[in-house]
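Problem 3 from the worked examples.
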Amino acid sequence: MQVPRTYVSKIENEKATPTLSSLERLAAALEVTVPELLAGGRRDSDSVQELMADPFTAELVPYLRKLTALQWQSVMAQMRDMNVHTRRSA
């Protein structure tokens, strides 16, 4: 990845949020795709296809590469917060 080992360790321990380019480099180094990397290395194309079938996700994907590091961190933090504090539907 051409980054310090400490940076990879911080990502693994959720003390740092990787940029999309870092995720792409890490995936390449591990010889997996970014979705496989995010899925924990499982090759589960069905779940990726299911995710991409979601209209919100499909609309969001083209913008992800345009995010700055700060914007990426903000999005990831909000997603983590949504996962921890799931809302009940009425």
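Problem 4, a separate protein:
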Amino acid sequence: MIPRLFVRARQQRVAARLYDSLVEQARREEFYRDCGVPDSLDGRFDMIVLHAFLVLRRLNREGERVSAFSQALFDCMFTDMDVSLREIGVGDLSVGKKVKHMARSFYGRAVAYEAGLAGSDETLADALRRNLFGTVTPAPEHTARMADYLRREAAALDARPVEELLQGRLSFGPPPAAD
């Protein structure tokens, strides 16, 4: 029993480090300045979701052997969402409902992004317009930049050994630049 507690605690620490890395990438100003992602609460949430989707997608390709770690990362993300909602003044009675809504949003976006990656460029662009750019009408070049970025980063993560993620090592390529 005690060894499992140590393993779980280590997984949580590593998952938190991984989550911090993906949030750092999601907050890069180039996404908001050069790619048209709304610099708003919704836009920032969607950038975190997009990057978490990429990492969880890679982890899920490993199946059951990394499922506990994937869950630790997911839990870390939604614990952070809970804390963030409280920090911006959402009342205690509303936080649970909002977090559940955010979790449903995450799953919906993950399904849409996965279908987009498996489908045509237009399918992926549609998924991004509905989700990442859901509160604005993006310029076509912004959607194209983000679609290229999503495909590039999914391929890069697929090529990396999962052990790097399990050790908390995560890096992304640069955000798309304006032409």
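Solution to problem 4. The longest helix spans residues 92-118. The two ends are 56 Å apart (CA to CA).
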